[in-house]
Design a protein that fits this description.
With 250 residues, the protein is mainly alpha-helical. It contains five helices and no strands. The chain has two domains: 157 residues, Helix Hairpins (Orthogonal Bundle), CATH 1.10.287; 61 residues.
Length: 250
């Protein structure tokens, strides 16, 4: 293989790769749909021309049939008038009209067939265009979905989950530490209140005991200003206890 052939092959491969990368499927499909729709007026114009030819031939056939009938009447009239020369001339014109009528009928048959084929081709093209348009729209939607998936994949590739995870873990630790400190303070506060209540109860009990002790000392005359009980005399509390015992004994 020559150097020039290798160079052309490389250039075709390079240009093909560039076109392949820059070619947007959505734009290509949309352009294809537009081109198919743009061909519809041209196709309708072609069908209209074929149908116009058919209409023209049909009119020519009707005109020639009228001429044949007219020539036939003129031939008969010339013969009745004894004008064989004129009858002969009309016969020649009649034969030519009959030939033209025969050819026109054949052409009309061909034109009618061509019109039917043109209409059928136009209808087939319209159906094909509708089917291709629907298929193109489906492919365009698939292309859009694929592009969105590609963008999502690129976003997921650049998304660093570890950074956010470390942030969440750090904030979770801070919140846990704050919660633990708050719970500890609440426990300490509750313990302090309990201690205070216990101290108050203990103090109240001590005061009761002191009052009881003073009462005993006062009854025993051990406090200044108190009455000393006589020998053998029991304190009031003991005397009341003895009377109660004697009463129960009786």
């Amino acid at each position: 293989m020559g150097l020039w052939s290798r160079f052309k092959r490389s250039m075709r491969a390079l240009l093909g790769g560039v076109i392949e990368r820059t070619e947007d499927p959505e734009l290509v499909l949309q352009q294809t749909i537009r081109e198919m729709r743009d061909r519809v007026p041209e196709l309708n114009n072609s069908v209209a021309q074929v149908m116009a030819t058919e209409r023209l031939l049909a009119k020519n056939k009707d005109r020639l049939e009228t001429q044949v009938v007219d020539y036939d009447s003129k031939i008969k009239a010339a013969i009745k008038l004894g004008r064989d020369d004129m009858a002969t001339a009309y016969i020649g014109q009649l034969q030519q009209a009959q030939l033209d009528l025969q050819k026109t009928k054949q052409q009309l048959q061909a034109a009618e067939m061509a019109s039917k084929q043109a209409l059928k081709a136009r209808d087939n093209y319209m159906l094909q265009m509708q089917r291709r348009s629907a298929e193109a729209m489906q492919l365009i939607n698939q292309s859009k979905q694929a592009r969105l998936q590609e963008q999502l994949a690129q976003t997921m590739e650049t998304f660093q989950l570890g950074d956010d995870a470390s942030t969440f873990n750090e904030m979770r630790d801070k919140i846990d530490r704050r919660s633990a400190a708050a719970e500890a303070k609440m426990q300490l506060g509750a313990a302090s209140v309990d201690n205070q209540l216990h101290e108050i109860e203990q103090e109240a009990m001590n005061l009761q005991l002191q009052d009881k002790l003073l009462e005993y000392k006062r009854e025993m005359g051990l406090l200044p200003g108190s009455t000393t009980p006589q020998q053998g005399q029991l304190p009031a509390a003991q005397t009341e206890g003895a009377e109660d015992n004697s009463g129960r004994t009786m």
